[in-house]
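Discussion board: Methods & Data

I've been asked by a reviewer to show the raw model output for two of the constructs in my manuscript, not just the figures. I'm not sure how much to include, so I'm pasting the format here to get opinions. Each protein appears as its amino acid sequence followed by a line of discrete structure tokens. Is this the kind of thing reviewers expect to see in a supplement, or should I convert it first? Here is construct A:
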Amino acid sequence: MNHLRGVSISILTAIILFSGVLPAGAQTFPEFLGDACWQYSSPSDGDFGFLRLGITDMSGPSGLHFNMAGVVTSTSALPIVDSTITGNAEVLSDGIHFTLTRSRFSGSGLTQSVMHIVLDANLNGLFREEAIFDDSQQSAVTSFRSGSLFLTSLSSCP
């Protein structure tokens, strides 16, 4: 766990240093660390795209608790679909665990999901997601999917 925590703190500190978000020596919490971007793929349903999260350190020097908000962009079909996503991440003994909630409203209904992600020390990992689609006709469909994520950038997504 100490190795993983040290790597995650180092990477998130690099976001601060290279983004110029804070002047040298400033230490205030909560502290916005910057954006990170992952490319995801889900073989179970053929979906792929990008996860962009703005990350805020809520814990100070311990570097264990993070809040985040951002966008999931599915690029596997046209039109491209964006969904808002919010949640938190915790550094645990076996990786960095994210719990994220995603929501999207369209003319055909509302989709809401809960996604659980586990990242390794290189900030790559796996996810599982449970989604509920309600088509406003009072019929809900639940789906499950899983896949992988690879860190593409410690700034904005392509």
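Construct B, same format:
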Amino acid sequence: MSTTIKRIANWFYHADHWCRTDLIQRHIVDEREYMARWITYMDRSSGRLGRKRIGYESYFVSRTLSPHLERSLGCDALFSFRYKNQIKILCIESKRPDFRGRDDWDNIDMTKSTPASRFTKQIRKQQVLANQGVLVYEMFLNDEQRLQTRPGYDKLGSSFVRRGIALDHGQINIDPNPRAWKWEDADTIVRKQSIESPVDIKYLVEMILSCQIGNRLNLDSFDGDSQFVFEDGGNTFNLPVPDLKTILENQSFGQKIERFIEQTGISQIGFFQTESETFWKSDNSSPII
């Protein structure tokens, strides 16, 4: 694995580590703040257009949305990794289980005809992403003291669980006897993931960039820009994927990304781009669902 890939993966991980420190010290109160600060830390530590000296560029978009805005795709963060006219996409939904037993991090959505846990509904919505080859992971924040973390959890940052594990467990939280997720449920799937393979953000980024996981997705061209189109039945959501070498001259990008955020509720987005074949030379990529 190249030094560049390791540096990028460590960059993600350090930002998550800093956010966990802020969460422990109560400088962050919920998932939305955590994700926004994660993007902010990455943006500040990289420079607005990334670290060209080690072979890649980056650009970040962070918005604060109403908590009542529906997340059409069941995620709150998206990372795009681009090489030429292909990308890999990682989508994340963050949750903060309360290990002190108050269990108020999930509830039953009674506004629909079929009551179900809100988290379970979000996991179901993510099927649109999984169907199109997007990597989807559930991210569990942890405000326990670092290095004193319970078994199965990352010692310094957040713990990640692939969507398939969460989806299987979430089947217990649907009609006719829906119930909200409790911290024990999060504990169960994090431990199950750790048995399969412990996952933190460093591991995920390393595996994506070294082509061990994830699908290479082709970009479409529309209105002079590259984009990836998410299709959900009759609905389409167009993710603009700008050429980061000319992002400052791209006057239409701002309007397009704002439309995507409003449509999907994905409010934290990171774009990464490289011209190096180091990231795309392997043929080992495969979907993880």
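Answer (T.O., handling editor elsewhere):
This is acceptable in a supplement if you add a one-line summary per construct. For B, something like: The longest strand covers residues 86-95.
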